[in-house]
Design brief:
single chain, alpha/beta, TIM Barrel, two-stranded antiparallel ribbon
Length: 345
């Protein structure tokens, strides 16, 4: 079986074990949110199904979705695409939201009450057409529900055979420790890229100590690190980057230095800026997972989405090429910086 993006003929996709768990996934995974929402109009259903199956053919085994994506339609898409491939893939989805009382079509209420978790897991299983969810993340920390209660609810689901592994998304280190004491956390998902390196401060060291895997999302800076976006780029009205401070024309112009540097290194290596951004990740010591860097000599991709940002990397600490590591900060005025929704409890 050939590998995924950037792998040359004859190479195979590397695998990574998430932390100290027995959950093994491909070194590059496919985040499917953008197929149904957030980055413009949803993709054509049949094209997206073909894409997902092509990813499997090329060695990708790790697929990420959530009930809120759509809402619901992304889980349904993944369920249809992977129904006949269940024994070849690892499926991650997320809970933690409920429909708005004012507009049921929008899931804007944060809730992780145990009874709610046990209800929505059944709905996700049905949409995904599976009997067990491989990795079940809390999408956002609920400040009104003790994390111990959340971990306890997922522990019950694991004992019932409905879930295999527990994950957290954008949680603070104190919350991670408290959850891990009740039910071992297999993986934590957070934003991480050359453009956003905050996880290096506390999150990654904590996960390494606890033996928890790290799943970074937006490794290409929501498309910015591909070099296809500049201060003059416009987004469709339903693209969420319209409201992200890092994507104001002012911020994009201020950050162009980083993209120019990636482009310079890419030209020297005969690659693309996106490949250089991804290849800047390397294996770290110990059991902490890391991705297989894509080859700089092969620019073929399974799919070039409008955002070029659907790939998830299962990684450890990044060791940047020397010239890239010299780039300091975001270049954005402090008032314009976008901060992910980390829970600091």
């Amino acid at each position: 079986m050939t590998g995924a993006v950037g792998l040359q003929s004859g190479e195979t996709m590397q695998k990574r074990r998430l932390g100290n768990s027995k959950l093994e996934v491909s070194a590059m995974g496919l985040g499917c949110m953008g197929m149904s929402m957030a980055y413009g109009p949803p993709g054509d259903k049949q094209e997206m199904i073909a894409l997902i199956r092509a990813a499997v053919d090329r060695g990708v085994t790790f697929f990420d979705t959530a009930e809120i994506y759509g809402p619901y339609t992304n889980e349904e898409l993944l369920g249809e695409a992977l129904a006949h491939l269940r024994d070849q893939v690892v499926i991650a989805t997320k809970f933690g939201f409920a429909p708005s009382p004012d507009d049921p079509s929008k899931m804007s209420v944060t809730t992780s009450r145990p009874e709610h978790i046990k209800k929505v897991v059944e709905e996700s299983l049905r949409r995904l057409k599976i009997g067990t969810i491989d990795l079940y993340y809390q999408h956002r920390v609920d400040p009104n529900v003790p994390i111990e209660d959340v971990a306890g609810a997922v522990k019950d689901l694991i004992q019932a055979g409905k879930v295999k592994h527990f994950g957290l998304s954008e949680a603070g280190v104190k919350t991670i420790r408290r959850a891990h004491a009740v039910q071992p956390v297999t993986a934590v998902q957070s934003e991480y890229s050359l453009w956003w390196r905050r996880p290096e401060e506390e999150l990654i060291p904590t996960l390494e100590k606890l033996g928890i895997g790290f799943v970074p999302f937006s490794p290409l800076g929501k498309g910015f690190l591909t070099g296809k976006i500049d201060e003059n780029t416009t987004f469709s009205k339903d693209d969420f980057r319209n409201i992200v401070p890092r994507f104001t024309p002012e911020a994009r112009k201020a950050n162009q230095t980083l993209v120019d540097l990636l482009a310079k290194v890419a030209r020297e290596k005969g690659a693309t800026p996106a490949q250089i951004a991804l290849a800047s990740w390397h294996r770290s010591p110990g059991s902490f997972p890391s991705p297989a860097p894509p080859s700089c000599t092969d620019s073929k991709r399974i799919w070039r989405p409008p955002t070029s940002n659907s790939w998830l990397l299962i990684c450890g600490r990044s060791r940047m090429p020397q010239r890239i590591s010299r780039y300091k900060g975001t270049g954005i005025p402090k008032r314009s910086r976008s901060v992910p929704d980390y829970e600091q409890g």
